Amino acid sequence: GRIVVLASGTGTLLQALLDATAEPAYPAGVVAVGTDRAGVGALDRARAAGVDTFSVAVRAYADRAAWDVALTEAVAAHRPDLVVSAGFMKILGPAFLSGITCPVINTHPALLPSFPGAHGVRDALAYGVKISGATVHLVDSGVDTGPILAQEAVPVLPSDTETELHERIKITERRLLVGTVAALVRGGRDRTRGDLP
Ligand code: GRF
Questions:
Q1: Residues 6 or more apart whose Cβ sits within 8 Å of residue 156
Q2: Which of 20, 22, 132, 163 has its CA at a distance of 20 to 30 angstroms from the CA of residue 11?
Q3: Are 137 and 113 in contact (CB under 8 A)?
Q4: What are the two backbone dihedrals, phi and then psi, of residue 58, each rounded to the nearest 5 degrees?
């Protein structure tokens, strides 16, 4: 299976996928990594793995709709069987969701539907939860709202800072993402969004 990964940051989730897909037994390969900005660690990690990269910066386009179309074209050019948003910090718009017909999944560092959005870890910590976790879900037109594919709980310690909790969650998130991607790709390439188990 041909996987395109979208990222915005350091790319440790991407790295987990690059490491897993490097194993001959893993049923998929990362064919390209896309970001919404240049100069992020995810791009360096992709290059180090010999994987194609592209960057589609919002400010390079007249408006969000034009950016959405440009991102769609850049992703579609790699003929993905699966798109993985791994720390991609932009909402995928209508052009993307209609233009990309293969499954699109996202990973979120909280137990959705609790604490969606760009600050899930901070919000959970501020709320005082004792258990948080990681979620992998299908992307739909909302923010962190698509059908849930996998979740795993992660304990919150009283002394946790946002960074400490996020790093603990990311350990689980990386394992959850790699396992979910393998299951999806083994599940058959001709699936359209939404009819997955
Ligand atoms: C992950 O926890 C992801 O869920 C969140 O941001 C983090 C990205 O981490 N949106 P990295 O860039 O993969 O290290």
A1: 124, 125, 129, 130, 131, 132, 165
A2: 132
A3: no
A4: -55, -40
Crossing angle of helices 162-186 and 120-127, rounded to 10°: 130
Q: Is 89 annotated as a binding residue?
A: yes
Report, as residue numbers or ranges, the catalytic residues.
108
Per residue in 26-65, pLDDT (tens digit) is 999 999 999 999 999 999 999 999 999 999 999 999 999 9
How much of the chain exceeds pLDDT 70, in percent? 95
For residues 140 and 88, what is the distance between their CA atoms, to the nearest angstrom?
15
Number of the ligand 1 atom closest to the C-alpha atom of 15:
13
Helix locations, the chain, DSSP H? 12-21, 41-48, 64-76, 94-99, 120-127, 162-186
